[in-house]
Each structure stands twice: as C-alpha cells, then as structure tokens.
Design goal:
Blueprint lengths: L1 H43 L7 H6 L2 E2 L2 E2 L15 E4 L6 H21 L16 E2 L6 E2 L4 E3 L4 E2 L7 E6 L3 E5 L8 E2 L5 E6 L2 H9 L1 E5 L5 E9 L4 E9 L15 H4 E7 L3 H14 L4 E6 L12 E5 L6 H10 L5 E4 L4 E2 L6 H10 L4 E6 L6 E7 L4 E7 L3 E3 L2 E7 L6 E4 H7 L11 H6 L6 E11 L8 H14 L3 H14 L2 E6 L1
Parallel strand pairs: 5-14, 15-16, 15-18, 16-17, 20-26, 22-27
Antiparallel strand pairs: 1-2, 3-27, 4-7, 6-12, 8-11, 8-13, 9-12, 10-11, 13-14, 18-25, 19-26, 20-25, 21-22, 23-24, 24-26
Length: 501
Amino acid sequence: MLRSYCSMKYFLILILCTIVVFLVSMRWKRLAESQIKEEISVARSDLKLVSPEKYKSLFIYNGIWLAPKNQCECPKADHVHVYQMEDYIAKKDLASVKERRRKEFEHYQKRYPSMIQDLVIAKPNVPLSYPIQGVEVMPLHTIMIPGLGLHGVTEEKYQVILRASLGTLNTLADVSDDVVRGRGKKELIILTSDVELLNFILEHVTYTSVVYQLSAVDMMTFESRDHVAQFPVIIRQPSLPKLIDPGADRKISSLVTVTTKTFLRYHKLRLLIKSIRQYYPDIKIIVTDDSEVPEKIIEENVEHYIMPFGKGWFAGRNLAISQVTTKYYLWVDDDYLFTENTKIEKLLDVLERTNLDMVGGSVNGNTYSFQLLYEQGDDSGCLHLRYGSFHKLDGFPNCVVTSGVVNFYLAHTDKSRHVGYDPLLQRVAHSEFFMDGVGILLVGSCSDVSIGHQDHNPASEPNLTKVEDQYKRFRANTQAQVQFKLSLHYFKNRLKCYSRS
C-alpha cells in the first residue's frame, strides 16, 4: 500500500513538473515571438519609398522629368513654348481624327512589333542553365541553342521539357524515342535516369524557325520537374548590305555630292556654285528647283532638276538625295558661300571614323544643334526640343553628339533616304526631318567646320528686289502653316504635346 502511494506521488510530481516546463517554455516562446515581431516592425518601418515630392525631384534631364510614368506631359516653364496638339485640331473633327490615328497606330504596331514582348525575371537558385540573350536565328533557318543544362539535382528519373511557339525543336543526339519525345515539334520532352546523357542531349538541342517574319521574339520555356525558366530566341532577317564603291583614289568627288534646293533666287544660287568651284572644282552639284519660270543653270558637273511650281522645300530635298550616287551628300542652302573653313574633308573624317549618320558644321559660327527628348505615354507621346548637345564625341574635341543640326551637314545618303523629308511640309521646315529621325539617326555637330552666309542686304537691282519680295512671301511662316504642322505631328508622330526652348 505504501509502495503504491509513493509511486502515485512520484507520478503526480512528474506530471506537475512537465506542466511547469511546458508553461515556462510557452511563455518564453511568446516573449521571443513578441520580440521578433517588434524587431520586424522596427525593420519594416525603415522600408519606405521616397516621398512623391522627392521622387519628382529625381531623374530630371535638361529640366524634363524622365522617370517612369503612365502619362507624359509638357509642363510650362520660363522660356519654353508648349504646344498641346489637340488644340490645333478642329473640335468638330477631333473625335474622327483620334479614331483614325488609333487604327493607324494599331497597324503600325503590327508592322513594327516590339522586340521585347515579355518581361522575364530570373528566379533564384534555379538548377537550369540557359542563354539569357544572344540566341538569334534567321527565318526558316536552324541553330543549336547554347548553354542548356541541368545541374546540382539528383533524381531517380530526370525529365525536362522545352517549348517554343514560332519554331520546332530537335536534338542531334542519337538516342531512342523513349528518351526524346517530340522531335520536330514545338514541345520536346527528355526522359532519362542518366544526368550525363541528359546534358549531352541538351547541349545539342536545335531550334528551327517555321514562321517567316522579318523580326520576332520566341519566348522559349525550359522546365524540369520543379523549376521553370524562360529565355528569348530572336528571329531576325538581316538586310543585304548596300555598299557604294568610293573608287581606288577615294577622292572627295567620289565620296560626296553637294545638294541644294532653290526657289526664284538664281542670283544667290550662282554665287554659291561659284564659291563651291573655288574649293572643289570637280565635285558634283545637284540642284532641285520649283521656281515658276525656271532659268537654265549651265555649269559643268551640275545637275538641275525642275519641279512643279511651289512644290515645296522638303519635296525638293527628297528629289535631290534621290539622285545622289555617292556614299555621302552635303546639304547646303542656296544662299550659302564656301570659304577657306568649309572643309568637307573634316566632316568626312568624322563619318568615316564613327557610327554617326550625319554631322553638321556651323553657319557663320552658329551650329544650331539641339536635343530631341521623347517620352512615351499610354495613349500618345511627348516631344521636347532643347538647344545644345548630349555630350562630346569621342576622338573629336570640336564635335558633340546631338539630335539635330543647322542646314549645313554631311550625311550618309542611304540613311537619309530611309527617314525621308516629308513632302507635306512645303514652306518652313527643318527640325521636322530630325523629329522623324528620332530613334533612327545618330547625329553629330562640329564647330570647327563652317560655311558663310550671303548678305541680307537689299538687292540693288529693281528686278532682284521683286524676286526677293516674292521669295519672302513664300518663305513666311504663317499661323495656318504652324497649325498644319502641329496637327500633322499629332497624327503622324502620335504626339500629345510638343515643347521647345
């Protein structure tokens, strides 16, 4: 009886001790959890973003806030003119114009799809190896996909799956269909218990483009049992090179054609030609002319093209460069004068040694270089013109990189043809060409090459005075022309607003 009592006593003591230990441990656990929560709370109080005011003070370039945002805008500022494009569309026409623009932009997007269609985030510690860029194939061609592999995983049976959407998959590894399934299809499945064999098969996987597109992206999927990765295969049709033989001597006259557009002012044109011949006697000159009563220009190595009366400034430029057969053309206005500082060789050296598409000089010391800063919004874009340049051009201390230059520049003929001069712009137009060239043209400006400008003194002869007066009437930039240009930019360039300093 006593022994039974003692046993019961020890048993109760053991249970009581267990309860005490459990209660103490629970209290310590609650204290620890409370402490951790307090530490996390303290830590998370530091996880905050900068204020909206601070955010808007960051990422400013030349007075323009170039940070991510859904809608761009052209804010008012001192010495900046702002044009809201819809203000230059008749209110009764705005809805229909906007709808036509929307449809045209959808068609544009089909013709020029974005090369980056999906955002791909690399997941941490994925045992799959794969290429993240640089895989490119021509339409209907076949390539091997480099870098595929599975590492650091041990499984009884390995399985990986590759999927494509614009091409078919295969492997050069000579294995049975039980190991590789789906050869020549858009999904390739590999099943094996041998990881070395698996990686051998993956090293020799091929991709065949089956859709003829000039430019497209196939987002490939690569997955194992527990992991998935994506990588792009670029489908691109390279264009054929269009090379122009500069001749064995590489003379200026074999590389460059001088181009100009004239209207009425033959007295100034003849002075320009005379100054060109003083320094470059053998160079070809192309003149386009939309005067009402054309005069003959009988000069050696001068091609004179007659256009319908008043056809326009940019139409004349298009005609001029369409007839250029040299690698480069030099654009000049018909009232310029070549001087001892008009060194085409210097501008040529810049284009031959850099990747610039055109390089401007100065007119009487004025380079007129300007930046074009473009912002994309959800429904339209914003364009900002600011005078100046982006930075120095490496290797040329007197040159800078910019967006647009004065009407004195040397340019690659083929690249200017690609952009084109919009013939709808008949009178006052200059920056519009560079606006159409945003994202296409890489432009430079060099201050150490200059050309002169003929005097603006009133003509001494009565008939020349009449010519100058008639020219000025066509040259004037009327309010109607300004409205037309801005409405054109609204539709053609899909601009919401335009600002210029």
